[in-house]
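USER: Study each token:
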Amino acid sequence: MTSLELVKDIVHILDQKKGMNIQAIKVRDLTIVADYFVIAGATSTTHVKSLADEVEYQIKKDDEISPARVEGYGSASWVLIDYGEVIVHIFNPEAREFYKLERLWADGEPVDLSEFGIGEA
């Protein structure tokens, strides 16, 4: 499975669970940390945990991939799920506004999620 295919699977899971303002950014040429960041918002800490749980469960079940690590689950204002080449960031509204990862990684290449059927009516 390529890292872009993993991004597609993660984005679909987040979309199905009502993740908000889902974005994927190709950062491969900017950092050795990952190929892609997937960023999603949630309505509350409960929603953050629900999205993180669903991503972990579905990716393990369907793609047989476990994350290298999960950070922030206890506070649930920002959960990071590290799949190596793909890092998932799930934020509550306040944390997303505070950290503004989209702005921090603005030099990255946005992934057109409409190609995955996301954001279409």
About this structure: DSSP finds four helices and six strands in the chain.
